[in-house]
Design goal:
The protein is mainly alpha-helical. Helix content is about 50%, strand content about 10%.
Length: about 120
């Protein structure tokens, strides 16, 4: 539980203005846009590829369908199944795309709110 309110920042994008918390996570995931993803990825030193966007679209679709962000195990399963990868190999793929990890980069770039408590499996 946090003992103080979040420090919020407004960011202007070509698609419109969004508000992020002090860690750069969107406060309203419905305002996510590809422009937001590009901005956050660039700040983290990532050049988004189709593969990055595939993972981001999966996370966003899961959240839309289930009402919560997917746990990393579902993302690993999504990455592993089509190519017959092991969990370890899928984790290598995920960290190859997003070196700082699932919550710090995937969730942020995908426009999810910052998790307050999180188990990444």
């Amino acid at each position: 539980m946090r003992t103080r309110p979040d420090i919020l920042t407004r960011i202007r994008l070509p698609e419109g203005e969004v508000t992020v918390d002090e860690y750069g996570y969107l406060t309203d995931p419905s305002l996510w846009s590809p422009g937001f993803a590009e901005l956050v990825a660039e700040q983290d030193g990532i050049t988004l590829t189709d593969r990055h966007m595939e993972v981001i679209r999966f996370v966003r679709a899961w959240e839309e369908e289930h009402g919560v962000m997917p746990d990393v195990r579902f993302v690993l399963k999504y990455l592993a199944e089509p190519e017959g990868l092991s969990k370890s190999q899928a984790k290598d793929v995920l960290f190859g795309l997003f070196p700082q990890g699932y919550v710090k980069q995937v969730c942020k770039i995908a426009g999810m709110r910052q998790p307050r408590a999180w188990s990444t499996g």
